[in-house]
């Protein structure tokens, strides 16, 4: 089976935006999961000739669960299903309690985690990523889903673990 990349992170950091960018025009197979969500959460893609599938765990609805339980559940799905996990955070808001909570869960797993700091829309904002070293997941990579910046850096790191 082809390698799987899972996108994890608290709501509103830009997971779906990054997912759609990464899937882009290269989607070959998209499956909706009946009864789980109406959102597109699985896509196939490729980077530098390496094929992989992507899961947007934020699209998995668990409406009855409290906020922290939902993101915990999403992280657990990523740990079970993925070969590489991308933790998405936001450079605009900085490190939040929810980011720290998810980072701890991912840290305890033995899965490789890539730390993406989204919403770094211009070069002046790149210094906003340094505080994310505190999550203990290594080098934070500045990205902008809406401007299409930094996705190649994230995917370069991801395919190293395939
Ligand atoms: P999700 O809840 O993590 O899936 O986040 P979404 O992808 O739905 O994005 C949440 C909000 O952040 C939307 O209003 C997006 O337009 C916005 N957004 C996403 N990526 C970026 C980015 O790189 N820069 C900025 N400024 N806004 C972004
Ligand atoms: Mg989303």
From TrEMBL:
EngA-type G domain: residues covered: 3-162
Signal sequence, start to end: none
Binding site for GTP 1: 9-16, 56-60, 118-121
Role noted for this protein: GTPase that plays an essential role in the late steps of ribosome biogenesis.
Family: Belongs to the TRAFAC class TrmE-Era-EngA-EngB-Septin-like GTPase superfamily. EngA (Der) GTPase family.
Subunit structure: Associates with the 50S ribosomal subunit.
Name this polypeptide is given: GTPase Der
Gene label: der
